[in-house]
Amino acid sequence: MNKSIIDLVGNTPLVEAKTLIKNPKVKLLFKLEGHNPGGSVKDRAAFNMINEALKRGEITTNSRLIEPTSGNTGIALAMIASVFGLNLELVMPENATEERVKTMKAYGAKVTLTSAEEGIIGSRDYVENKMKSGNYYSFNQFANDDNWKAHYKTTGPEIWKATEHKVTHFVSSMGTTGTIMGTSTFLKEQNPSIKIIGVQPEDGAKIPGIRKWPKEYLPKIFNSKKVDQVIEVNEKEATDMARYLAAHEGIFSGMSSGGAATAAVKLCEQLDEGVVVSIVCDRGDRYLSSPLFKY
Q1: Which of 30, 174, 195, 272 is the most exposed place for a label (fewest CB within 10 A)?
Q2: Which domains does the chain have, with CATH numbers?
Q3: Which residues are CB-neighbours of 77 under 8 A, at least 6 positions away?
Q4: 60 annotated to bind ligand
Q5: Residue 2 scores a pLDDT above 80
Q6: 19 known member of a binding site
Q7: Annotated binding residue at 175?
Q8: Which residues have a catalytic role annotated?
């Protein structure tokens, strides 16, 4: 049967780390979200946010859609919007990688760049000001329940099934927090003893895709009760791990995935036994123009 590109979102592979864990009773599994058609975990949320808004009649092909993004969500929204014939403007910091900007434009989105110094917060402020005119619709991924529900519907069930219900720990970087909120909600419904570990940058560290939000910008979908532990990582750890994953595990990913893997390895070293699943949220080719793979 012929499929749409949208039908290929989700059902990403789970692979076991071969060199990182010494304890045979501890398994570290990586969920490879770069296998989504748009290249990242954000395809899931993008599809669910757009599809549900269309079903509710909140948007049509005449709507002017606008969304702030640090990259992956924008690419995912641009891809899904192209399939539905939607008019989309994406707003991101001007220091975003060239690959991201070009990919969004290739999918037909308009891209507006804001101050690199203000980062994603500046992009969010820009969109909020645009919204005041009343002529735009924003998905507001930071406060949109359809963001986390995408992972409740798909990511959580996939992990539960693929590990044959044996998953004991789930590790995810925290940006919009949609991935960790939705996956946590599903997994804890199946087994409340499953531990959910969020990954944040250390104070002063800048890791694309991972945030430690100021209180006034904390995503409204975030519920701290759904996260059992937070592990902080620094830029060097995230960079070194992303490079290690490519060179020794054959997993080509970005810096936030390196951060999550760093936290996952730290966690595994503390366990006597367990099945740990860590999200690899995108592909490394999205970072080739950045310093990440400049040795």
Answers
A1: 272
A2: 5-35+154-287 (3.40.50.1100), 60-133 (3.40.50.1100)
A3: 42, 46, 49, 50, 65, 67, 69, 88, 90, 109, 139
A4: no
A5: no
A6: no
A7: yes
A8: 42, 256
